[in-house]
Design a protein that fits this description.
This protein is mainly β and 192 residues long. The chain has one helix and nine strands. The longest helix is centred in the N-terminal third of the chain and has 21 residues. It is elongated, with a radius of gyration of 17 Å. Pfam families: OMP_b-brl_2 (PF13568).
Length: 192
């Protein structure tokens, strides 16, 4: 249970530390979503199913003056992994993306697209199934990219945002493995 709360505490502390300093310069927001995680670049004889998990965290959105572009660093707790047979490989990360966001059509509904790199630091790595759970010594940092699209909805004092994103790993999920993360996410959030 402690492993589950640690990522929330880390994301909360990061958000509290940076939000007051950045509030005059950037929009601060919270985001949550559902991950549909699997693996890419896998051997032909390896065909796992996706693991459904969650993602939650915060972000800052720094607008480039006189431009539809903004830079958006995030701190996200993200559950990834895959299922195979009766077992599940669960690899949870503190993910730090830095995204370039392009917004279109200013108004009450503002569509946007974004992309950028991320670094993911392992918080939990285990294999579970058949009422057993085994921790895996996995310190492999996950480097990858994110592409996404969505819309910001102006709700007066705050903006709601909805969207989808895909994260693809450039590095192997495990030190001695030959698979990379691939995660499709449906996300929602609020910015102040």
């Amino acid at each position: 249970m402690k492993k589950l709360f640690l990522p929330f505490i880390i994301c909360g502390l990061i958000s509290l530390a940076v939000a007051p300093k950045a509030s005059a310069q950037a929009d601060f927001g919270l985001r949550a979503g559902i991950n549909f995680a699997n693996v890419n670049d896998r051997p032909d004889n390896f065909d796992p199913d996706s693991r459904t998990g969650l993602m939650v965290g915060g972000y800052l959105n720094f607008k480039v003056p006189m431009s539809p572009i903004s830079i958006q660093p995030e701190a996200i707790y993200s559950q990834k992994g895959f299922k195979i047979g009766n077992g599940t490989a669960e690899v949870d990360y503190l993910e730090i993306p830095v995204l370039a966001k392009f917004s279109f059509a200013p108004g009450p509904v503002q569509p946007h697209v974004y992309f950028g790199p991320y670094a993911g630091f392992v918080l939990n790595s285990e294999v579970s199934g058949n009422n057993l759970s085994v921790d895996i010594d996995n310190t492999q940092t996950d480097f990858g990219g994110i592409v996404g699209a969505g819309a910001d909805l102006n709700a007066g004092v705050a903006k709601l945002n909805l969207g989808v994103r895909y994260g693809f790993g450039f590095t192997n999920m495990f030190e001695n493995g030959d698979v990379k993360n691939g995660v499709f996410s449906v996300v929602a959030g609020i910015s102040l």
